[in-house]
Amino acid sequence: MIKNFEEVLQKVKHQKIKKLAVAVAQDRHVLEAIKDADEQGIAQAILVGDRVKIAAIAEQLYMDLTRFELVDEADNNKAALKAVELAVLGKADMVMKGLIDTASFLRAVLNKENGLRTGKLMSHVAVFEINNFDRLIFLTDGAFNMYPELKDKIDIVNNAVVVAKAVGVENPKVAPVCAVEVVNPSMPATVDAAILSKMNDRGQIKGCIIDGPLALDNAISEEAAAHKGVKGPVAGKADILLVPNIEAGNIMYKTLTYTSNCKNGGLLIGTSAPVVLTSRSDSHESKMYSIALAALVADEIRTFKSET
Q1: What is the reported pLDDT for 308?
Q2: Model confidence pLDDT, tens digit, residues 11-38
Q3: What Å distances lie between residue 13 and 18, 86, 121, 178, 230, CA to CA?
Q4: Which of 41, 244, 258, 305 gets the highest tally of CB atoms within 10 A of its CB?
Q5: Are residues 137 and 189 in the same domain?
């Protein structure tokens, strides 16, 4: 099982290189990530945006733009639509947000006529490499779905399982994280967690092991689970943390990012092609890891389509 991002990068290098369409590519951190991804053989980029601005930043980074295809489009909204169109037409395997606000970028992704809709719920999966953990942690959904209902959480779990399997976790353990580890009818998230667990037991949610509700400590710490007498196949061993709402996920994401010595990447899935949707404040390293994750997921989606 892959345990860190170095192993993620190595896995990506052993598959066919993927094409990445970048919407509004005139962003320094994004171009740094693209440069790293190209040098490491992770992905080839199609840069869509203002050619003059892209060239100016590339010069500062000593980045050889002759290695990349450039699509000159100064209008941000049109650039986003063009980047998405490249994926729809099969000219790119994945799409990345550049120097454009998230709402405008997502309008292009969700465009009814030429977007990446599949009819499935879209959700965000963040992947963390945290010191002292023997595995990667998958956090969902702290960026896209605000207050998911039970039916939404089923899709969010399924999306996260796709990412985990693409990374190499064959049978991911899913913890629906709540404030407590017991079912409390006054706390709807605990009821949802119990239902998800039972659906998994009955084979209605496949490809993973779900057990909950679990509080965060006994989801990720075997010592804490043992101390509280919490038993089960997921207790202390969770790979995927399913948060109850966007506030919990956002707070957890930023707490890990800013207070722990960790590495992370993330993407939007449930689309016909993976979407690299990072924060403007994310480092170029984080963006590069996100590209690597998207490349693995793109390969997983392609394999699934060829088998069906």
Answers
A1: 44
A2: 999 999 999 999 999 999 999 999 999 9
A3: 10, 23, 30, 37, 40
A4: 244
A5: yes
